[in-house]
From TrEMBL:
The lineage of its organism: Eukaryota, Sar, Stramenopiles, Ochrophyta, Bacillariophyta. GO terms for biological process: menaquinone biosynthetic process. One of its GO terms (molecular function) is 1,4-dihydroxy-2-naphthoyl-CoA synthase activity. Transmembrane segments: none annotated. Belongs to the enoyl-CoA hydratase/isomerase family. It comes from the Eukaryota. Coiled coil: none annotated. This is Naphthoate synthase.
């Protein structure tokens, strides 16, 4: 394995990641069952310590309905719980007979008149994708969006909320809300402004222009783009580089970067990481032990 962490990127293998479908997942020795997914696929790679969650509705450019979002949430929880997974990819399964896309946003055929999306699987219309955005932010593992084709509307927001975005050179980015009668006043607006600046964010939303991969890179919307034929191998390099690094340090960096933007919820995420680490210390364990042994704690002796 490559040992250089700086300037050694080119030394990392570009062999595409070998995915295994739905292997048994263990978390703390408990077996987790893998649900059967319809709108997405879920794979992991034990060699590259990575999970891949992919939209699988190419006929509608991977537009999401409530079921799609619910399945991604389940898959994201599986990947978060799985100790063998250090990095999570959010991608799409493109087929050559359809226009390539990462995600064309909310499925307009199931947009109801009653305040959300209703595909028959919800008790009431919902804007479930907002819950997914929060789950992605709270996930302590790095999430890499792999964009190959259109990333539009709510799909565009999902790649922005991911920690890193790697795209193909045929990708197209944009918001259509004001043209389609919708908007995202949460991360879709505030996080976008953090990424590309207030003036550019207003342009993206007010004009509903589309941007190619080169423009998106220049704006700071994405981290990198590559020729489509190279995308898989390049993504493998990014993943291999990320999983070389300390998972705890990455989780704390992600929490810190979120805290700046997420107010009390962000501080809670950061605080949660601190508490988790404190629980591993002798000092913290002394408090528990003293309680269980019905004696006064001797914290200083454990420093
Ligand atoms: C991406 C575009 C420009 C591609 O054009 P192209 O190449 O001409 O392909 P099409 O022929 O248009 O598309 C191929 C097939 O895919 C269907 N399709 C595409 N997008 C959708 C979609 N979003 N919903 C349903 N179907 C879609 C086409 O209809 C076509 O099917 P057939 O072959 O049967 O005709 C072009 O496709 C385009 O402009 N798509 C629409 C992009 C868009 O506007 N998306 C919606 C944006 N809005 C949101 O995402 C809403 C988000 C939201 O509501 C929200 C807001 C705040 C908080 C929460 C939410 C939430 O979603 O919950």
């Amino acid at each position: 394995p490559p040992t250089k962490h700086r300037d050694g990127f080119e030394l990392i293998s570009r062999q595409p990641i070998q995915w295994q479908s739905a292997p048994t997942v263990t978390a703390s020795n408990n077996q987790l069952s893998i649900p059967s997914f319809h709108d997405i696929t879920y794979h992991i790679s034990l060699d590259d310590q990575c999970a891949r969650i992919a939209f699988d509705r190419p006929e509608v450019l991977h537009a999401f309905r409530p079921q799609t979002i619910r399945e991604i949430q389940q898959a994201l929880e599986l990947a978060t719980e799985d100790g063998r997974v250090g990095c999570i990819i959010l991608a799409s399964n493109n087929l050559s007979k359809y226009t390539p896309a990462f995600c064309a946003g909310g499925d307009q055929t199931v947009r109801s008149n009653d305040g959300g999306y209703q595909d028959g699987t919800e008790t009431a219309p919902k804007l479930r994708v907002l819950d997914l955005q929060v789950q992605m932010r709270r996930c302590p593992k790095p999430i890499i969006a792999v964009v190959d084709g259109y990333a539009i509307g709510g799909g565009h927001i999902l790649h922005m909320v991911a920690d890193i975005t790697i795209a193909s050179d045929r990708s197209v980015f944009g918001q259509t809300g004001p043209r389609m009668g919708s908007f995202d006043a949460g991360y879709g607006s505030t996080h976008m402004a953090r990424l590309i600046g207030q003036k550019r964010a207003r342009e993206v939303w007010f004009l509903c222009n589309f941007y190619d991969a080169k423009e998106a890179k220049e704006m700071g919307l994405i981290n990198a783009y590559y020729p489509t034929s190279e995308l898989e191998g390049r993504v493998a390099q990014w993943v291999r580089r990320v999983i070389m690094n300390s998972p705890t340090a990455i989780a704390c960096c992600k929490a810190a970067l979120n805290a700046d933007e997420d107010g009390g919820a962000g501080i809670m995420q950061m605080g949660g990481e601190l508490t988790r680490m404190f629980y591993m210390s002798k000092e913290s364990q002394e408090g528990r032990d003293a309680f269980l042994q019905k004696r006064a704690p001797q914290f200083r002796s454990k420093l």
